[in-house]
Predict the 3D structure of the following.
Amino acid sequence: MIHRDFHAPILLSKGLTVFAIAAALSFGGFVAAQEEAAAPERIDLTNFPGKIVDQVVVPIPAEIFSVLDKLDEPEWSRGVSIPDEPGDGSDRSLLALTFGSLVGEGFIAVQAEEAGDIEEIGKKVLDLSQALGLSNAVQPHSLAIIEAAGDRDWERVRDELDSTQQTVRDTMDRLRDQQLSGLVSLGGWLRGTNVVTTFIRESFREDKAELLNQPGLIIHFREMLGKMKGPSASTPQIRAISTGLARMEAIITGDGVISEEDIKGLNEISRAMLEEYYFTP
Amino acid sequence: MTLPPTSVFSRRDWLLLVAVIGMLPFAEKASAFVNEAISYAFEAATPYVEHGFEVREDTWSGEVEPGKPLLVRHQLFRGNEYWFWAGTSWPGATVKVDIFDSEGNSIGLESFAKGNFAGVRALPEKTATYFIRVVTQYDPEKAKLDEASEAVEGVGDYEGMVDWGLVYGYR
């Protein structure tokens, strides 16, 4: 284990540079004093003597995209596909799924560095937040997305997309609407999975296919839908998405081996699930 | 006992707040305003942003009995590099964090632990679910010193639980 020491200034935004330099000077002192933490080489996960945290943090699509960018040169602009009327309906569960997928679309547009698409997505995100009754919380983020896209500040756009999704989920949680909050994550994950499988399908390689080895997340989403209550739980769309996740779970067994045929299957299943609420069939 | 509520600040807000606090001559008193576990974790993460790490908005947090380890499951992708940062804001509490694969083998490449925050770095060898272990400790003598030096207010008396928070970043 190696101790790491940072003395470099913190990078924030242009307007915060002066603060950043001062903060870095301050950090230099205490970070240098950090101690190396000795970890055990191995623990027994089958007999863990503590508490397993049941909260699940779903990775944002950008986490997977960054790996795909290292392995290949996807033509991200071909992956952007913004629906004309996303969230055309009143079912809040479908609106939450659509919101998540639209944020996922934003992450694809950032990879493509398509400022026009990002601005359009920023506006649609705001429209959708109004339908969800969350426009006050989302408006600052939506404006920031549009502004950052105009500045071609892609890192900031990514930050704001993550913030937008998190703000919506936090607001839903505070309103005791955890059911909707989880659907936002599912919508983003589904859109990301669909575009990633599209690119991998076009030029298959095992190391790229391994990115889909996410059995824990699929189980999490299946359990989440299984716990849904109210009229939304039994809509044809939610039932179809639940079935789609079950089919995905059958493909992703957790052994890490995902074949070209598996990728084709995952791509078609994710597309069909998105056609339930996001894409036009 | 009532712990401070989880923050609704965005990461950018935290970065600004931490930067401003870094400028203040009386940082101890100012830190009372960010006396939350998550804020300590974000504070630990802040210097890494300049090194290209995207720090996620989504976090884990809660309360735990000191000494009782916590295990967080999380999906990691081979090809990304990760840092996990843990924090606790409770006076007298310290935190450590480490990371293991599904077999229970440690995969941490480097780590640090300094009182209220800690971090561990990993480069996963395969795309899979990993396990992040967070362990807090409580020292009543340290608590007295912390309360005296940091003028911590509003956290109540110690009743056997401390707060904890965990954030992560990737590049």
Q: What stands out?
A: Chain A is about 60% helix and 0% strand.
